[in-house]
Every structure is written in structure tokens, then in C-alpha cells.
Amino acid sequence: MLFIGDSFDFEFITTASNPVRCALGKQFCVLLFSDNTAVYRRTAHHVCFVVPVHYPSFVRSTLKPRDLSLKESVDHLFKFKTAEDRSRFSTYVSSLTNVDFKIIKELGPPRKAPKKNKTSQWP
């Protein structure tokens, strides 16, 4: 796997039915996997983009209820591989000073498919 973007120390997933893979390095990131492949040192690799995301905005966009505190979101929203990873992430969340947020629409619930046009020629 080739990771494009920031480096990170460890990764973890959300507890959602369709989990989102996340990572923590200097900041919180979402791992976006693609269908792209790249050749690196004569070997083909799948490509994953490491995208930094504002953590309070991520939490407020994905959690229901939205009034859950950021500290509580650590256990409510994520599964960690080790207790040490959980502790390090909790420390990161506690150190955040910019807790203002904006809803990230792309992280919200899936939207309903548009209704079919009844006058369409296609079945």
C-alpha cells in the first residue's frame, strides 16, 4: 500500500456499520482508498490518500447525537488496535484548542436516491 500525503503513527476505524479508516500523526486524518495503483521500486501498490480532517468537524458530522463531548467521542466513535493507541488519541483530543466546527456534508448519512422520472423512456 502506498500512502500519499502526511505520515501517521497508527490507524484505527470507526464503529459505524460501514467503517471509516482513520489515522493519527501530527493531526487527525481520514484514509481514502482508491482504485488507483502505482509502481514504486518496481512493485505495483494500491494507493491510499491520507487526508487531514478537522477532528471536531468530523465528530459533529458523523455522530448522533451531536451534543456528545469530544472526549466522549473517542470511545463512542472508534475501535483501536491497542490501549496505547486509544490513550495517545485521547491525549490528542484533549489537547485540541480549536473546537469550532463545520458540518462536512460528505460524511453525513447517505442521501436518498432521486425519484425516477415517470415520463422516462427507459424501463
From TrEMBL:
Superkingdom of origin organism: Eukaryota
Designated name of the protein: Uncharacterized protein
Taxonomic source organism: Encephalitozoon cuniculi (strain GB-M1)
